[in-house]
Amino acid sequence: MSKLSIFLPNLNGGGAERVMVTLVNGFAHRGYCVDLVLASKEGPYLQEVDPLVRVVDLRAGRVIKALWPLVRYLRSERPVAMLSAINHANVVAVLARYLARVNTRVVISEHSTISIEAQRARVWNARSVYVLVPWVYRRADGIVAVSRDSAHDLERFASLPAGSVQTIYNPFDLTRIRQLAAEPVPHPWLQPEQRRPVILAIGRLTEPKDYPTLLRAFALVRTHLNGRLLILGEGELREELAALAQSLGLGDDDFQMPGFVANPFAYLARAAVFVLSSRWEGLPGALIEAMACGTPVVSTDCPSGPREILQEGRWGRLVAVGDVEALAQAIVSVLQTPREQLPDVRQRAADFAQDRAIDAYLATLGLPGWGQA
Prior knowledge:
The chain is of the alpha/beta class. The protein folds into two domains: 3-171 and 353-364, Glycogen Phosphorylase B (Rossmann fold), CATH 3.40.50; 174-352, Rossmann fold (3-Layer(aba) Sandwich). It has helices spanning 15-29, 67-77, 87-100, 114-119, 124-137, 148-157, 174-181, 211-221, 238-247, 264-270, 285-292, 306-309, 324-336, 346-349, 354-364; strands at residues 3-8, 33-38, 54-57, 81-85, 105-110, 142-145, 165-167, 198-202, 228-232, 255-259, 273-276, 297-300, 317-319.
């Protein structure tokens, strides 16, 4: 029986974690014996892991402390292949295989634009990971990035040969998204009787998402129409964003941050427009999820992913990063355009169906499309 392992820090509420849960569930349903190996067994996405998947808790807390527990796991379980995600976990995965002296094929995946992440690393342990990347990544058996631009960026950053990083778009369970989108939504702003359009953003409250630009753009939008703004997600910038909203004159009936939401698709299906205001991404999953729900989208033209997803603006409006006025104008334009005159974004979302990604990852892992678990 072939065992396949996936190594992650935890299952806290980020895009990469959601992607990996989709993958592990997909691998299990393809007949593989799958271990989801976590440095720390925590995070809201734990409840989404299929019962067919065994969750292994290394009880390490921080990822760097998971190195020797992962070595012991590899020596004991000897999976035929292991996939990891997020750069510090990738470094640990490659080093653990080396120290364990096992034949496990290790494939690492990068879910952001690494050169920008490295520039903004502030603490020494984060900076040290990026120093190790060029040496460690080339010792992996396969390297995956989630967009073409992020793949090229990784090759330049890590001095890897051109074409050595494979692009695999993130998987999306479109059937499940449609089912969850039809569920009731608890927020009062999204009930059928409400007439004020709701602008929705989803993602961690962190620097890359650039929510200050979105808040300033929303303040301009309100001079044209009486909309509302919801940002779903948690993060260290919550207090800063709340203070900015107050300074812009946005009250509780205009702007709210409900926190992490287990089913964002019910929100997306009822929003008037989804907005991605990011300064950088890898492949923004929330943008694709919004399109899968049929929600019109506006996005910054940030590295990496939005331009690829929207095919140069065919499926939604692209604006310059950090341009408050352009973002506000694009939002107003979408809200003032009848829905039937906007592109049916569900057609483009179909290109990101999970089976394509599962096939591609299994091939990169050196495994057939179906296992014999």
